[in-house]
Amino acid sequence: MEVGYGRWEWGRFPVVGTPYRDEVPLSGRLADAVSPVVLAEVAELPDLRWPPDRAWCLGGDADLVSTYVVGSPELIAERLPTPGLEAHPVRPDDLLG
C-alpha cells in the first residue's frame, strides 16, 4: 500500500491506515494547508484537516471532485448558505464522487 501519494519517502513517520492508502499525520497552521510551500512541480494538499479539539474535519482526495466537511448539524447548517460556496448536505452512507 502506498503512503500518502507515493511521491516521497515517508518511512520514518508513523502512518494512519485508511481504506485506499496510508496517511501521514502532520501538524501545522491551517494557512499552510491552504497554500503549501511548493516542493515539486505538482504540490499536494493534505487530504484531511482537523483542529486539536476535533470539532470538525475537512477531507478530500486527489481522486475526488469535492471536499467534504464533517461536523455538528449546527456547523453544517452555518456552512450551507455561504456565498460562493457550492454546498450540499450528505449522509455517511452516500457515495463519494
Describe the protein:
The chain is of the alpha+beta class and 97 residues long. It is 12% helix and 14% strand. The protein has two helices and five strands; from the N terminus they run ββαβββα. The strands form two sheets. A three-stranded antiparallel β-sheet has the order 3-4-5. It has a two-stranded antiparallel ribbon with strand order 1-2. The protein starts with 15 loop residues before the first strand and ends in an 18-residue tail after the last helix.
Taking Cα atoms only, what radius of gyration do you get, to the nearest Å?
A: 15 Å
Please give the share of residues in helix: 10-25%
Count of runs of 4 or more consecutive helical residues: 2
Number of strands: 5
Question: SSE layout and pairings?
Answer:
Blueprint (H helix, E strand, L loop, with lengths): L15 E2 L4 E2 L6 H5 L13 E2 L6 E4 L8 E4 L1 H7 L18
Antiparallel strand pairs: 1-2, 3-4, 4-5
Could you provide a short overview of the structure?
This protein has helices at residues 30-34, 73-79; strands spanning 16-17, 22-23, 48-49, 56-59, 68-71.
Task: Give structural attributes.
single chain, two-stranded antiparallel sheet, alpha+beta, 97 residues
